[in-house]
Design brief:
single chain, about 475 residues, five-stranded antiparallel beta sheet
């Protein structure tokens, strides 16, 4: 997981994505003779914050080690990492499994973590038809490696794990977690065991899982492959395999390295880091509300259904927008519906983000109030919403300008109802014989005749009165 920092892990050169090849480099990134690393405190702040969000124990002292290997994407032929004294130990990721209903969350469970450590990223190989070139822009970017215990039991659980983890880290301002940009990567270790056995089988590492969906699909594929190998009398070999998300197949890359293959030893150029209570306390004060905690609060305090909270809560900006609307006095359930459905639809049509929207929380709160007080109907409110999105005018201004107030003129309403009953004799007869739903045809005709301006409650009363 690449950390969202202004500069790289051991140098002042900028960290970023999309710049021309080999422009985000300096003597430290390129490992030129005499260039020495200097720690990036922002990266340490971010990983401590991640550890606190995930309930890890923050080590009082952590140190830096050299992980030795030769590969073109590594300028030094070693990577500065953490081996036996990582900065974060333990912790867990809360996940939600499929099975939620409108008002009930799915099953939740805690997936324990082994550790989280900090290291530097390497460069990127760009393979062409006749050559392979190296771009070192990514090299030296702060990289957080999160290792879970072998506690995930299915491909779906792995999908839920990464989904929850990504939400937590994005909302914590720790990483952008964009897998397409390489900011979030996942290597999955998969092993199987017969029912009733406690010992895990030989593990196989799966690489090139460049989307959360590919992680789920790749794990499911590997589970099927290993079962087929064992059922045919074969033996699972510890190895690293490459998964192709397009074809849904994998192939062997190499035998799996062991820790001793990397010849870890302490980095002589970097001092250990001490993390005191004051440092942790300062960072703890910046922690966001966990997304599942917030979702439970939205359901309990605002009586929002799961279907709405599952749209609002994963997006920190959207969830904050909802709470700002509710603080203005808008009925929470109505506000949630407008935001999760109509607002997101209009943003999609306009191709803009929430920050660029002309509709502010005050617009939503004002619209909800107009509907609640009977000034406009819900169908008219839909039209007003579209106009708000285009013009940015407040809803009461739009209603006044266009004369959209609901009609409460009893005489006018009685005429529309009489005409609707005359035009729908079967519906009228059906209601008289006990079919409540038959009223909908008559009320629909009234709303059409009034162009949506008739007050629905008054229409219902008058229809029932005229039908006896």
């Amino acid at each position: 997981m690449q950390l969202r920092t202004a500069s790289k892990m051991f140098t002042r050169v900028a960290a970023g994505y999309g710049e021309p090849e080999n422009t985000l480099v300096d003597p430290v990134v390129l490992a030129l003779p005499g260039a020495l690393p200097v720690l990036n405190k922002e990266a340490l702040d971010k990983i401590i914050k991640a550890g606190l969000i995930l309930g890890c124990e923050i080590a009082a002292v952590c140190k830096w080690d050299r992980k030795n290997y030769f590969y073109p994407d590594s300028t030094k032929n070693y990577q500065i990492s953490q081996y036996d004294q990582p900065i974060c130990l333990g912790g867990a990721v809360e996940i939600e499994l499929p099975g939620a209903s409108r008002n009930v969350m799915g099953e939740h469970k805690q997936i324990p973590l082994t550790r989280i450590h900090l290291e530097e990223d390497v460069g990127k190989l760009n393979h062409g038809a006749s050559d392979s070139l190296v771009d070192y822009n990514r090299g030296g970017t702060p990289l957080m490696e999160i290792v879970s215990d072998p506690a995930l039991r299915s491909a779906d659980e792995a999908f839920a794990f990464l989904t929850s983890l990504r939400i937590a880290l994005v909302q914590g301002d720790i990483s952008d977690c964009d897998m397409e940009k390489g900011q979030m990567r996942c290597d999955a270790n998969i092993s199987i065991r017969p029912v009733g056995e406690t010992k895990l089988g030989t593990k196989v590492e799966l690489k090139n899982l460049n989307s959360i969906s590919y992680v789920r699909d790749g794990i499911a594929h590997e589970i099927r492959r290993q079962i087929a190998v064992q059922e045919s009398g074969g033996t699972i070999v510890q190895e690293t395999r490459d998964y192709d998300g397009q074809t849904g197949a994998s192939q062997s890359l190499r035998s799996k390295e062991m820790a001793h293959d990397y010849r870890y030893f302490p980095d002589p150029d970097l001092m250990p880091v001490r993390v005191d209570e004051a440092w942790k306390t300062a960072i703890r004060a910046t922690l966001p509300e966990h997304h599942f905690v917030r979702q439970r609060r939205f359901m309990a305090d605002y009586q929002l259904p799961y279907t709405i909270t599952s749209v609002l809560v994963p997006d920190l900006e959207l969830a904050d927008y909802f709470e700002a609307t509710a603080r203005l006095g808008a009925a929470p359930q109505a506000a949630g519906n407008w935001i999760a459905n109509d607002l997101l639809r209009e943003l999609g049509v306009a191709g803009v983000g929430l920050a660029e929207s002309k509709i502010q929380p005050a617009h939503i709160a004002g619209l909800v109030k107009l509907v609640e007080t009977g000034v406009i109907s819900n169908s008219i409110a839909k039209e007003v919403f579209v106009t708000m999105a285009q013009s940015g005018e407040m809803p009461d201004v739009i209603v006044a300008k266009q004369g959209l107030q609901q009609s409460t003129d009893t005489g006018e309403l009685e005429k529309w109802v009489a005409d609707a009953i005359a035009a729908n004799p079967k519906a009228a007869e059906g209601f008289k014989t006990g079919n409540e739903k038959a009223l909908n045809a008559i009320k629909g005709a009234v709303m059409k005749a009034s162009k949506g301006k008739a007050n629905p409650q008054l229409v219902d009363q008058i229809v029932r009165k005229q039908l006896g």
